[in-house]
Design goal:
Chain lengths: ~290, ~160
């Protein structure tokens, strides 16, 4: 355990030979492109500052308590980060990782500036896992009504009005997973998943009012993401849009295909209902106004 | 504590989310992490990674909330998650798609996957947080990726 403190990333594991080549086996774990988009979207999904501030308020004075005296040289860094968070505290997502985990510049373990000469000799085990009745906390704090309202909706609006993502990022290979970028300022380059989601959001918004536009968005999605992550949602919306347009036989076809393909979809009930309606409204399936 | 909070809270929240804590409980869970950290701050060993320490707590809180959630899972599954006023639908959809995909994983694998690919920890740090040997962490990650890839293909 002791030596780990000094060489966080240099550990080479003989594993089963396949995966390991370098100090940090990042290469071995390059995600397939389909999953990269997902991982990217997840990384971008940091809890926005207003919520964090509200939590901080509820924690109140506890935050002033000192930690066990640590030589954590993180202080300055986290301070900077805090300022950064403050600056964008208007409901903006901060796309970054906390402290560049495997960046050699800031090893998570601040080099032991040894006030505690030999921690390992007295405590051979890693600290955290100690079974203790973990959670009475929520009750031991008077939960104040959430101060959500502080996030000025207007300010937030300006941020969400960013120009819609335009392109689909063609090449994800640039991100070397072994060296996580400290700050992935993602604004300009939405992940594929975000782009997928944007198209479907357009479709969803249009599906009742102008189902034809919805179908156009869906077609665009089909074209760009034939195998996208949100295919299920797309096909669901397609059923709704077609039904809405009165294109019954198509709607029925797509709907039935949907039920077959997405056996566990949360939209099944709705699709089933639509299909029933379609069947009821067109006895014998005749007299449709296709297209 | 304040420093720890400011540096990590937003990411702890993200981590909780992708470990499966329901959006409606997310803020409470995040608060709980820091309450526990506060209570156990004396256990933190100077010189070790404060992040790993904090995330070990995060993991346990996530588990607790996960257990609670599973009891009502069937009910929750299709209830739309609450979203912030400023949160775009695109983000919510992307999140749900990711959560749906992650849900194919066992908790063990999911944790490793999230810590590595979302929180971008080194595998050594991951194994420290999870409390398993490094090799185990590796094999879980491999398995998770394989499983996700397959699930992803199935979905498409």
């Amino acid at each position: 355990m002791t030596d780990e403190l000094h060489e966080p990333e240099d550990l080479v594991v003989a594993d089963d030979g396949v995966e390991k080549s370098g100090p940090e086996s990042g290469q071995a774990f390059v995600l397939p492109p389909a999953l990269q988009g997902m991982a990217e979207a997840m990384r971008a999904d940091v809890v926005p500052s207003p919520r964090i501030e509200a939590i901080g308020e509820r924690l109140g004075a506890r935050l002033e308590a000192p930690m066990a005296q640590a030589g954590w040289g993180l202080g300055a860094l986290s301070g900077l980060l805090a300022i950064g968070l403050g600056a964008v505290a208007i409901g903006f997502y901060v796309f970054s990782t906390p402290e560049a985990p495997s960046s050699p510049a800031t090893p998570p373990q601040a080099p032991v500036s040894a006030p505690t000469a030999s921690p390992s000799s007295q405590e051979p085990d890693p600290p955290p896992p100690q079974p203790e009745p973990l959670l009475e906390p929520s009750s031991d704090i008077q939960v104040e009504p959430r101060a959500r309202s502080r996030a000025p909706a207007s300010a937030a609006r300006t941020t969400s009005r960013r120009p819609p993502p335009t392109g689909i990022r063609p090449n994800r290979e640039e991100r070397a997973p072994s060296a996580p970028a400290a700050t992935v300022t993602n604004q300009g380059a939405p992940s594929q998943l975000m782009e997928e989601a944007r198209l479907l959001r357009n479709a969803r918004q249009a599906v009742q009012g102008s189902p034809r536009d919805a179908l156009a968005s869906l077609a665009e999605h089909t074209q760009h993401f034939p195998q996208g992550l949100l295919v299920e949602e797309r096909e669901f919306l397609r059923v709704v849009a077609l039904a809405r347009l009165g294109r019954r036989s198509q709607a029925r076809r797509v709907g039935e295909a949907f039920l077959q393909r997405f056996a566990r979809s949360g939209h099944r009930a709705e699709v089933t209902r639509l299909l029933r309606e379609l069947a009821e409204s067109s006895p014998g399936g005749a007299g449709e106004q296709e297209k | 504590m304040g420093t720890l909070f400011r540096a990590h809270a937003a990411y702890v929240g993200r981590c909780l989310r992708y470990l499966g804590v329901h959006e409606a409980s997310l803020d409470d869970a995040c608060q709980d992490v820091f309450l526990v950290a506060h209570r156990r701050r004396r256990d933190f060993r100077p010189g070790t990674s404060s992040r790993a320490w904090l995330y070990a707590i995060t993991l346990r809180v996530a588990r607790t909330y996960g257990r609670k959630a599973r009891r009502r899972q069937e009910v929750m599954a299709e209830i739309p998650r609450p979203q912030e006023a400023d949160e775009s639908m695109a983000r919510v959809d992307a999140r749900e798609a990711a959560l749906r995909l992650l849900s194919v994983l066992s908790e063990e694998r999911r944790v490793v996957f999230v810590l590595y690919h979302v929180e971008q920890m080194s595998m050594r740090e991951v194994s420290e947080v999870v409390g398993c040997p490094l090799q185990t962490a590796y094999s879980r990650l491999r398995a998770a990726q394989k499983q996700l890839t397959e699930a992803r293909e199935e979905m498409a």
